[in-house]
Amino acid sequence: MDAVIRQGSYSRKTTETDVSVTWVVDGSGECRADTGIGFLDHMIAQIARHGIFDLEVSAKGDLQVDEHHTIEDVGIALGRALDQALGERKGLTRMGDAIVPLDESLARVSIDLGGRGYAVVVAEISPMGAGGFRGDMLKHFLESFAREGRLTLHADVLRGENDHHKIEAIFKALARALYAATRIDPRRSGSVPSTKGLL
Question: Per-block average pLDDT, block size 10, for the chain (199 residues)?
């Protein structure tokens, strides 16, 4: 019997952006990201490589106005693609966490794929951020992703000085936490990981 491919796709077109995402949960770490924001592409690549997911992300946005709409809508599309890929979430480990260092920075991310979209982000990032990715957009991206992915996400930068390092450590920790939470536990025998019987 062939294994079920856990894959989700989502496209979103507005007057501000045109975004398409495909997410293969049981992937090999391949990534094709073209959002027009090099730093965002680099962060998406971290999710794919360190979560061992296959991601295809294409976005055209009104970058002549601001990066905000593109970053937000990519977060929305990634969340919805992951939600679709997970389906009824049967057999999932469900929860995962990771602490990841990057030079002087240290980040922690905890995930619960329990069906409730919520994010808490504690990270001191300068307003300039890094590479056109403003400091306030880290929280906004993660909130959008968590809400649309129907997952609870707690992200903390525990220490650090360089904004690039702090943001990248968060994305790497996000990847590792997602990897752990999305694994299938064979002992669950395809049951929903909740005493409620439904996520």
Answer: 80 96 98 97 98 98 94 98 96 96 98 97 96 95 98 98 98 98 87 72
